[in-house]
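Worked example (supplementary).
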Amino acid sequence: MDKTFVIDEDRKHRLGFEEVIYGASKSVALLTDILKDYSDKKTNVLVTKLQENKAKILLEKYKTAFYDEESGIFMLSAIDNNEEKAARIGIISAGSSDIGVAHEAYYTLAYMGVKSKIIHDIGVAGLHRLLNRLEEIKSFDILIVIAGFEGALPTVMGGLLPQPIIAVPTSVGYGTGKGGETALRAMLTSCANGISVVNIDNGYGAALSAFRMIKLLEKK
Amino acid sequence: MDKTFVIDEDRKHRLGFEEVIYGASKSVALLTDILKDYSDKKTNVLVTKLQENKAKILLEKYKTAFYDEESGIFMLSAIDNNEEKAARIGIISAGSSDIGVAHEAYYTLAYMGVKSKIIHDIGVAGLHRLLNRLEEIKSFDILIVIAGFEGALPTVMGGLLPQPIIAVPTSVGYGTGKGGETALRAMLTSCANGISVVNIDNGYGAALSAFRMIKLLEKK
Amino acid sequence: MDKTFVIDEDRKHRLGFEEVIYGASKSVALLTDILKDYSDKKTNVLVTKLQENKAKILLEKYKTAFYDEESGIFMLSAIDNNEEKAARIGIISAGSSDIGVAHEAYYTLAYMGVKSKIIHDIGVAGLHRLLNRLEEIKSFDILIVIAGFEGALPTVMGGLLPQPIIAVPTSVGYGTGKGGETALRAMLTSCANGISVVNIDNGYGAALSAFRMIKLLEKK
Amino acid sequence: MDKTFVIDEDRKHRLGFEEVIYGASKSVALLTDILKDYSDKKTNVLVTKLQENKAKILLEKYKTAFYDEESGIFMLSAIDNNEEKAARIGIISAGSSDIGVAHEAYYTLAYMGVKSKIIHDIGVAGLHRLLNRLEEIKSFDILIVIAGFEGALPTVMGGLLPQPIIAVPTSVGYGTGKGGETALRAMLTSCANGISVVNIDNGYGAALSAFRMIKLLEKK
Amino acid sequence: MDKTFVIDEDRKHRLGFEEVIYGASKSVALLTDILKDYSDKKTNVLVTKLQENKAKILLEKYKTAFYDEESGIFMLSAIDNNEEKAARIGIISAGSSDIGVAHEAYYTLAYMGVKSKIIHDIGVAGLHRLLNRLEEIKSFDILIVIAGFEGALPTVMGGLLPQPIIAVPTSVGYGTGKGGETALRAMLTSCANGISVVNIDNGYGAALSAFRMIKLLEKK
Amino acid sequence: MDKTFVIDEDRKHRLGFEEVIYGASKSVALLTDILKDYSDKKTNVLVTKLQENKAKILLEKYKTAFYDEESGIFMLSAIDNNEEKAARIGIISAGSSDIGVAHEAYYTLAYMGVKSKIIHDIGVAGLHRLLNRLEEIKSFDILIVIAGFEGALPTVMGGLLPQPIIAVPTSVGYGTGKGGETALRAMLTSCANGISVVNIDNGYGAALSAFRMIKLLEKK
Amino acid sequence: MDKTFVIDEDRKHRLGFEEVIYGASKSVALLTDILKDYSDKKTNVLVTKLQENKAKILLEKYKTAFYDEESGIFMLSAIDNNEEKAARIGIISAGSSDIGVAHEAYYTLAYMGVKSKIIHDIGVAGLHRLLNRLEEIKSFDILIVIAGFEGALPTVMGGLLPQPIIAVPTSVGYGTGKGGETALRAMLTSCANGISVVNIDNGYGAALSAFRMIKLLEKK
Amino acid sequence: MDKTFVIDEDRKHRLGFEEVIYGASKSVALLTDILKDYSDKKTNVLVTKLQENKAKILLEKYKTAFYDEESGIFMLSAIDNNEEKAARIGIISAGSSDIGVAHEAYYTLAYMGVKSKIIHDIGVAGLHRLLNRLEEIKSFDILIVIAGFEGALPTVMGGLLPQPIIAVPTSVGYGTGKGGETALRAMLTSCANGISVVNIDNGYGAALSAFRMIKLLEKK
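After joint prediction of all chains, the assembly is encoded as:
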């Protein structure tokens, strides 16, 4: 039985970014095969939603690889993101439980070469926490807004701020909030104008959506 | 076939309020029978969610009856609510489309002898509209907060205000907001503390929930 | 990457109660950081829905801390609740499987300084168990009514008793009752008047809802 | 194109009852064809859920036919049900809006030759209405219990009474109760033992389920 | 905190059967307390859906207790069911994966003193398996019909057989069949007449429903 | 604003069949424009799910056009299907209410030049109706099996017959069967092997699926 | 009763665009009041999803107003959009039934002063229609991609094109596609990277999301 | 208690293929019993969806048995599939995570004696991967097309290729894609014509559906 898997090598040319590996449903054996390709070519690669037990095995093989436990992001080599240029994208989270999704967006952007900054824990139950930081938030070109439970934060921000807003619902919550469906639907139904939404827990997709805008800005 | 229907005449004694007639699924014939009972006894009665075509027929029969088109509230005699005492309950609506549910709460409370005030159209997409009226809203004993679409208003108010808050989702919206299920689930999943929720479009139930609290206050 | 989390320190002033820590989705590391703040300030703090394995580690660190296995409630110091004053809030459960949610409401109220009493296991399948205790139940100011399966208890109580009733659906059940959605919807759809509802398994939210009413009573 | 439709003429022999015509989705033309067959053979036939506009046309054709507006039941000749024998089946409804489903069960049983009695409007929001009639209800062999909204009545009756109970959810209600799904799920999830359930608004199915039991009793 | 749980001791008198213990959501500690009561009184008791790990601990304590791994049924003393009287209730399963639910019905009936017989594995994908045993199946008073996947067996049997049929959907299946919801809805929507349905995997409830009919037969 | 719509003229070449017009959501004006194109070229065209009010207007314009009220099928010229060649495809319906979907499949096949035969009303509630015609049904190359309510017919046929079976759920039913979702899921979950399924009410899609098989047969 | 509704007059200042009127759920009376305000101030205003019967009445009052039947867009004065500057935003639709949503996006952008171009009917069932126009589509800054049924078009375009893509699901379809939920979920679940999504039929929201990006571009 | 399970031994005669064992829900004990039957008769047998822990035990017993970890397929003896005849069925997968379902289809066909070929990883996010292999894909008689996430691949292939297409949704994905429901509904709602669909992850069912067509071809 033929088992050749096909990397979309032309993607960078078409879209401006490389193919990324979805780690959650792949076996260590398959991931090892794929990573070897990249390692041999001495190019970095991004793996998303990699479970900790699988990451440990891969980290033993690739001593200089990077893994973030909160988000499951794995890269063959860590990205240096400490340079002093200003962050163009603000990643805003409603609660500290949203940290994994925030990190997924952050490291994806870093891998794509885009500087961002995370602002944690300014959900609408304590509105002043958001209002206090409004000036700082206004300075970003694009906002990625992450929330679980009832997902109200993007709506409130959408009424206060003029930038493009990409809303990310998270699966944080229980009962009616379990699985993130309520936050997702609330964001799609938002009475605030011009917010767009990505899949539940999809920090990676939000980063790519922001990246497409950044590319457009750079083209101008 | 026996067709006797049973009025719960003891309810006032047990609960402090009379049985109320759910009008939406009753025929004009049945409603006429029931209203005759009350009319003969010269007591007022409250009918909820009465459709306009049925209301017209009943208004012809009972010339002094009252009907509100927005909410479908019908009473055998109108309630005089203009007295100068202060409103104890604030009925806050997110958008002007929520007017029917707001009226249902308002007239139910009036029928129960409780003064309330409606504040329209201060949804979170324009946050300053809410913040501008915060002092006035603080003066109410109890808040009934009504919202369709993503239903974020009770969450924001719950983070700003200490009173009992009864949240009412409405069926205003389309797509993912159609039917009010998203607003309902968002309110139940709220990250704000101590908000309780009633059925979609149930302004009547919110009024009764507030009425139970008022009775408790009066007992003290 | 900035990892500062923001405590809503103004909440007590705005709402009359402190911020509470949702334990279920936080790592032991993060919880340790947060608890240290409170421990240093020698103030108590409430953590909800804390899993047993995480609680064990924290209990080793904080020898005088309190943990309730049924509900997952954790506090830095136990609340003394044995004083002789009468309970103002009745916490009524339909079945013995609802005990965890009942405890969550009980300890939350205790932490807020409010005395309550739990009455277990008087669900409607054996109606006389409820009817036998009706007089006692009438003596409470506010009722928190907890039920899984079909969630009929609040409806029956709402028809018998005049107090404010906060209904809490639980995730006890299987098949059509799995996850608590049926109990939730039944409570929201209740034909009894003026019952309000909180999220599935949300004993904490019911306690806070009752606390808002108690504050209102005390203001008068 | 062949358009012959097939009547299940053997059903009476196999199951003890004739095939019944589901009227809701058939055109007047098709119904006319089918009824002609029965009319020619001078045998009665039962049509269920027939809409009023279609019934009117058929009533003009068959002057001695019977039609009940509440339930949409149609028969070529009315059933005489006034005889003095005692009703064996109690049809209990929670609210007056459930009348259509109660009638569907009643007339189906009558058509099958079984005497029943309807007791209207004893839902659990006014529990004494049920308790007052408990002795009468105990006298029936089998109970068909009909309820919309949260559907709690069968649960309460199942805890009080030992007979076979067939629960019928109705589509009466709005918001979370719309369409009858909540009542259905509540009845299936009932904590009371040994209640069985039929489809939403399916008074006909409940009658047939009772009829199967009656046949069993008669065999003994 | 008061922790008294209330046994419904009057149930036998009202309904003809004792209260039964739902084992799935109770701790070993609580179950131990409850079983002690029965053991002290030297009466048997039925526990349903008891997980294997909990059963093992209880079996060590009660050496003469009975536990069935397939169904999770636990009794303080085994029921002798080998007597030669004929089975009155046929328990019919569509596939061998439905064995647990079939056993739950079987042992519940045995505990109630009613003889039944299980016929395994005659689902409609091999129709002749059912047709071959039709004569035997006709001999039972009542049929409990159990099926997972698409749940078609009760429909086919309902068209062939005149007895009361209690349909039990099971959670056997994957994809669209996962959790049993499809089998449940198919049974409720059945085009066959007079089938009634209980909750998913509820072999116990089906047994109790049959028991109510048996009691009625015995009364006659 | 450019309003040019694009006909997929290459489809016949790629797939062996022309583009077909979905009529339900197009205005009369747009349909008129599209039909004019075909009329001018003197080629026939198939329109599906066309509402009666719109069909009437178009029939006035195109005097030789064909319209079937049951299915909403419209063609510029009727297809002569009376020739004596044997039907290759059997269209089997469970109940007479499924007639519209059966016709949609029938006329689509006729338009594609494939002879089929409809066998009405042999649902599983009267199994002998199916068994009586088994030999005839065996003679078809391919079976399209149509059912509403619980959708059990394809499962039973799949266990009896070796041909390719395309199952079509219909939206016939009420309560749990409303909209056809139950029939759809039951067919997908079928315990019978090798049945494939198309969208609810999609007689057209079933015909095209059969057509693809016929083309394959002809190629051989 | 106070009936003052509150226009968010500060919105232009905060967000760069005026408040827009959601027309679907407002009465003609209320709309007349609101439009009078704008008419008196001689400023234009945008009303969305206005039903035809209500539009006719308003068009009689405001003779120079503009109304588009496909989308329900209403403006006090028509926007002149014929200027020769190039369109910056491409509005791509999968089928001709998506025309209403495409128009809603188009006129909203026009009202905001942004030139766009609609390309109709290039859905993936005829892939060459899309491939043929790829060069033209590459020239737009931002893409709004509209599709009903299974909603695959944005996924395919997202794999071919590097621009920001805002996907809009439509409620075009029947059976499993009814209401647009399937298209919505497919777009959110897309395997293509960096697509963001708005509510079903929300052409207006997609336009606003694009407008936020345009504003960002202009700021640079 | 009788525990005889019934093998459908006549199935081969009726349908052309043997009964297959669904392994997921059967205990090792039961599987051992069943396999012994086949082993004694020295005939091969196919078991589907067998979990790894159970397979290990059975592999110890049957040393020459075959087990595929990706799909859970188990056979008493491996099938030799290397012969040089051309594959008649193309099994096309969208992503490498779909490998288990592809294998299930592949080995089922092999067991039935039908040669197939798997083509991995040509999902629509990189369209050229599909277009590059179009000629090869055209050569197959029948296509089984497997996709998770948004499930767009069958739609795109259905627009390009004329063969029978059996679409298989997989449970690969998270958030809105979790469990495979989105891919399932997208495939059923496909705008491409004549695609039919089987249950989520049902590679086995797709193989049987293809097998029915192959039998039909062979008959000709």
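Two points are worth noting when inspecting this output. Residues 110 and 121 of chain H are 21 Å apart (CA to CA). Residues 89-219 of chain H form a domain with the Rossmann fold fold (CATH 3.40.50.1970).
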